[in-house]
Amino acid sequence: MAVLPVKFTKTKRDKLAQVLWILNWISVITGAILFSLGLFLKVEINKRKELMAERDIQYVPNMLIAVGLIACAINFLGGKICYDCVDTTKFLRWKLIMLPYIVCTFFFTFCILVGALMCYSMQGEMEESLDIGLAEALKFYKDTDTPGRCFLKTTVDMLQIEFHCCGNNGYKDWFQIQWISNRYLDMSRKEVVDRLRSNVEGKYLQDGVPFSCCNVNSPRPCIQSQISNNSAHYNYDHVTEQLNLWSRGCRQALLEHYTYIMQSIGLTVLVIWVFELSVLTGVRYLQTALENVLRQGDPDSESDGWLLENSFMETARTNLNIIKNLGKCNQVDMANNGDPNINVPCSSKATYGPDNVPPQQQPGTS
Amino acid sequence: MVVMKMKFPFEKRVKLAQGLWLLSWCTTVAGAMTFTLGCILKTELRRRGEVMDNTDIHIVPNTLMIVGLASLGINYFAGKIGQDALDAGRFPRWKNFLKPYFAISCFFTVLMLLAVIMSYAMKGSLESSLKVGLRNGIRFYKDTDTPGRCFQKQNIDRLQMEFQCCGNNDFRDWFEVQWISNRYLDFSSKEVKDRIKSNVDGRYLVDGVPFSCCNPSSPRPCIQYQLMNNSAHYNYDYETEELNIYIDGCREALLNYYMGLMNTIGAGVLSVFLLQGSVLVSLRFLQTSMEAVAGKENTEIETEGYLLEKGVKDTVMEYLDPVLKFLLLKNQVQQGAETPGPANA
């Protein structure tokens, strides 16, 4: 009992072949889109590489790139096959390849689905990576003379200016690290020495933030130093002042940015997956319809197309048996005393009929 | 005296018509591109409209948009005429249309060239507009409570950060202007009172700049205040320090940006101008060579095509005469009506 059989007249088969040819070419374009989405994600992650700790997040864009390239190749082949399927004689060329092609494409669509799901699952890893990476970056903000960290200050400043954020969780993160290098501290001054002594680790801590935390929308000039000291500034209350500095933390800002990108990419990949699956279904129907036409002998007749010839359970059982018997051709049969010269016919070998057929008498010759 | 006579055998005419059809479609796309470039330029100029004093420079994108739209129409008709040219039955209906069509097309093509020339010539006007606009922006930086100027501070801050510049000519412009509002100055403090008294106009001037002048590429935390005082900061020399704040002036930065944009657009429009010119020249040759065929039995004879029947000066006078007659027509009638009066008296 076939699974989801559909009757196909000759015109319907031809139309299906033509439509599938166009759809396969559209799928090549969607494969290129997948590839470019993976490339875009890779570039976006690499742009902020210095702010992320070492985590396994590169596998998501790499997977998308690989899947995109393979999708282009598979659908290009599918387009060629469907173009030839309009003509029954040309179909014979592809007959043997079609079933393995469909099986491969079916497993490949799983890869697309896995790619889409990975986009959504990456969020947790990304958050952890950003948290650790940003904390490190803030710690090394002042080390503009250390090779390898020269540009960390520029990177953090540009990040805070671009994403409108300050610090890791908020601006108070800057109070806990020394972000002014010792090269610019006058060690002969009493105030500097006092601050260094008052701290256990000998760090120069102050309640001030770098200029990149300043909020552009503030109506008053930016207050960067002595933020918690109301009396240091005229008409200023640090509890109610909201517009002076950026209030968001950079980890949250970056996470929102990447989550938005990955959710959009994940949604697009899911849509592409549904599209690929429908194209695959069409190709399967076309293949079974054409094979049945060949079996019936008349290329213009009506034929049945289906997804599976027998029910799902029976097909699974038959395939498992085939896989089990695949190796049995080469096995030695113990019933014949282990003699390898005795011919043991294989179950999968093609039979060409009996060997002792006499030659046909020609009518003209004697 | 005919201008540029050329012989056209039948195959050459056919090739010319086909080439004209293809060329007119390419130029239609190019015309649409010109329109788009004009829109882009206008959008970019409007984005920074708050720091420009006048809108004189907007004539360049406006002209580009008009010329782009006109070229769509011109090339549409050129394609249609080219298609009909080889058909002796359909070509005569365009006869009366062609003279005004060529006049208008030449006018708009010359306008395209004018737009490119203007984009180079208006550099001075743009510079003076930016000078006044930026000066006002810096003056009103502190007036975030005055309606109409609330967002001046934001605009200047964003501009300085995006274009990596400080002040009008350079950062010293901020020393001459009070950019800290009186609302945030403690008038009971001696330091504030001294500063205000030391100034003729009673303004609070500092040798400091807003935070948006700070350069993120600087290796040390930004020094915004007491910029000219070396002893106020450790290990600091204002004469040799180059990376602390942006040293470029915003007027120069903006001018370079807009001139670069207009140069790129000008190069593109120049190539569209050449394409458009070639379309019109081909159409003219096709028209004149097909006119010689009209009325003859054998349409495959060789004919001559030319650009202008008379010389350049005579052709220009021929086109201008009807326009002048139309403009002066009223005066002539009035003069004619007056003279019979005295004669009859």
Automatic annotation (TrEMBL), chain A:
Task: Describe its membrane topology.
Answer: Multi-pass membrane protein
Q: Which residues cross the membrane?
A: 20-40, 60-78, 98-120
Localization of this protein: Membrane
Q: Does the record carry Secreted as a key word?
A: no
**Any one GO biological process:** visual perception
Principal localization reads membrane
Its GO CC terms are: plasma membrane
Show the Gene3D superfamilies listed in the entry: Tetraspanin
The entry sums up its family as follows: Belongs to the PRPH2/ROM1 family.
Stated name of the protein: Peripherin 2-like a
Q: What is the lineage of its organism?
A: Eukaryota, Metazoa, Chordata, Craniata, Vertebrata
Automatic annotation (TrEMBL), chain B:
Which PROSITE patterns does UniProt cross-reference here? RDS_ROM1
Note the topology in the membrane: Multi-pass membrane protein
Q: Which CDD domains match?
A: peripherin_like_LEL
Domain of life, source organism = Eukaryota
Pfam families the UniProt entry points to: Tetraspanin
Q: Does the keyword Transmembrane helix apply?
A: yes
Which SUPFAM superfamilies does this entry report, sorted A to Z? Tetraspanin
Family matches, as Gene3D superfamilies: Tetraspanin
Compartments it resides in: Membrane
GO-annotated biological processes = visual perception
TM ranges are 58-79, 100-122, 265-286
Q: Name one GO cellular component term.
A: plasma membrane
| UniProt keywords, alphabetically | Membrane, Transmembrane, Transmembrane helix
* UniProt cross-references to InterPro entries, sorted A to Z: Peripherin/rom-1 (IPR000830), Peripherin/rom-1_CS (IPR018498), Peripherin_LEL (IPR042026), Tetraspanin/Peripherin (IPR018499), Tetraspanin_EC2_sf (IPR008952)
Principal subcellular localization = membrane
- What family classification does the UniProt entry report for this protein? Belongs to the PRPH2/ROM1 family.
**What's the name of the protein?**
Retinal outer segment membrane protein 1a
Organism of origin is: Mugilogobius chulae
